[in-house]
UniProtKB/TrEMBL annotation:
Keyword set includes 4Fe-4S: no
Stretches for region Disordered: 1-20
Biological process, per Gene Ontology: fatty acid biosynthetic process
Domain of life: Bacteria
Domain Ketosynthase family 3 (KS3): 24-435
Species of provenance: Bosea vaviloviae
Listed name of the protein: Beta-ketoacyl-ACP synthase II
Gene Ontology MF, one: 3-oxoacyl-[acyl-carrier-protein] synthase activity
GO CC terms in record: cytosol
Keyword Membrane applies: no
Biological pathway: Lipid metabolism; fatty acid biosynthesis
Pfam families given in the database record: ketoacyl-synt (PF00109), Ketoacyl-synt_C (PF02801)
Family to which the UniProt record says this protein belongs: Belongs to the thiolase-like superfamily. Beta-ketoacyl-ACP synthases family.
Keywords for this protein: Transferase
Length: 440
């Protein structure tokens, strides 16, 4: 594996800038933060993940009578149902970012010396707010009437709350990030896309640091019903903790989850110069879109295959360099089959023994946050030399011959990970995460 630092020597014998296999700035990780249904912070999450504990439970935030799915990985230990989805998403992002920025030691509180790239849910007004607005209208509720109500300024605070970029704007104010905050939503790959955008900005020299966050607090009745109507959710409600079963023969859908992941990315040389502890490297990113279907994955797996291959090429590595795959692993029949087939196409015969596990078996699918949450978990895997398991694996699917690290965490030397994020609408983003810089 090419894992040595690329260092050039000047004529005077001084160390020149570090560059990756393609001559670009190396992107280091100096801070990590996480909140999931398993707890707040890296320590709580790592202990639960490696113990094979599930954070999925019955929904108590709103009535579920008559619903086919009544479970989720919500963060009720922190917040009750009085929060709207944007408010909860902001709270989760704040907690994760606080932990990441504090660990990085970068800048003064409220004065982060870099840009913000933030994956947020596709925020819109929820039913209570829609009803409040509609009740102010006389006669039939129509589009013109809603526009007049909006123009009255009476509901301005509500509108500001639900603006797509409001969450990132508030986070930027709190942490003092530089430039215009970037809000993005690429479905279930959003968190990984936020990291990719931070990597690209540092490589270009646009910024020396980036705060990259994925957050999602979207478990509310309307969202649950929408996913249920798409037949995307598990209906195996009893017991809740056994519902998410990626790669198992009896998998029947994903379980919604809430959470946030935050990473402080930094130019490697900038981090070294200030004596920062470097937690790892984001060595490669790959992104492909297919547009095959609004919800279904392309059945030939081509976009996912190309995204993984692009990420490895971007890192200057080969499939043989990968020690572990952090799977997208949603527990839906189609996605797990597609991911297994795509990984086999990239890694060949190695897939029979190459560890691949799904964190979603324990925390549920954190949707917009998933790519960032799983990147944080991947770096914890590297640091601790222990692979979190895929729990609830009691009924193997003979069509998916994988080493899913079943049910129990496994000690292993892990230096390079590929983390997969595949989203509705054909969004496919893969990250290659390593211990130290690579060079050709």
């Amino acid at each position: 594996m090419a894992n040595q630092t690329a260092v050039n020597q000047t004529a005077a014998g001084q160390t020149a800038a570090h560059r990756d296999a393609k001559g670009r700035r190396v992107v280091a990780v100096t801070g990590l933060g996480i909140v999931t249904s398993l707890g707040q912070g890296k320590e709580a999450n790592w202990q639960a993940l490696t113990a094979g504990k599930s954070g999925i439970h019955r929904i108590e935030r709103f009535p579920t009578e008559g619903l086919r799915t009544t479970i989720a990985g919500t963060v009720d230990f922190l917040f009750d149902g009085s929060f709207t989805a944007p408010q909860l998403s902001e709270k989760l992002a704040t907690l994760a970012a606080d932990e990441a920025v504090s660990q990085s030691g970068l800048g003064q509180p409220g004065d982060f010396p870099g840009e913000l790239f933030m994956a947020v849910p596709p925020v819109e007004m929820e039913w209570p707010q829609k009803q409040e607005l509609a009740q102010t209208l006389e006669g039939d509720v129509d589009y013109d009437g809603l526009l007049r109500a909006a123009a009255s300024q009476k509901f301005k605070p509500m509108h500001e709350l639900f603006l797509f970029g409001a969450v990132a704007d508030h986070i930027a104010d709190r942490f003092g990030t530089k430039g215009s905050p970037i809000s993005l939503s690429t479905a279930c790959s959003s968190g990984a896309t936020a990291i990719q955008m931070g990597v690209e900005a540092i490589r270009r020299g646009d910024t020396q640091a980036a705060l990259c966050i994925g957050t999602d607090g979207s478990v509310h009745a309307e969202a649950l019903i929408r996913f249920s109507l798409l037949s995307a959710l598990s209906t195996q409600n009893d017991p809740p903790e056994a519902a998410a079963k990626p790669f198992s023969k009896n998998r029947d859908g994903f379980v919604m989850g809430e959470g946030a992941g935050a990473l402080v990315l930094e130019d490697y040389d900038h981090a070294l110069a200030r004596g920062a502890t470097i937690l790892g490297i984001v060595a490669g990113c790959g992104e492909r879109g297919d547009g095959f279907h609004r919800t279904r994955s392309s059945p030939d797996g081509k976009p996912a295959i190309l995204a993984m291959q692009d990420a490895l090429d971007d890192a200057g590595l080969t499939p043989d360099d990968v020690d572990y795959i952090n799977a997208h692993g949603t527990s839906t029949p189609e996605n797990d089959k597609m991911e297994a087939m795509s990984c086999a196409a990239v890694f060949g015969e190695r897939m029979a023994s190459l560890p691949i596990s799904s964190n979603k078996s324990m925390i549920g699918h954190t949707l917009t946050a998933a790519g960032a949450v799983e990147a944080v978990i991947s770096f914890m895997t590297i640091a601790n030399g222990r692979i979190p398991p895929t729990i609830n694996y009691a009924n193997p699917d003979p069509a998916i011959a994988l080493d899913v690290v079943p049910n129990t965490a496994r000690d292993a030397t892990v230096r390079t990970i590929i983390s997969n994020s595949f989203g509705f609408g054909g969004q496919n983003t893969c990250l290659v995460l390593t211990v130290e810089p690579t060079h050709a």
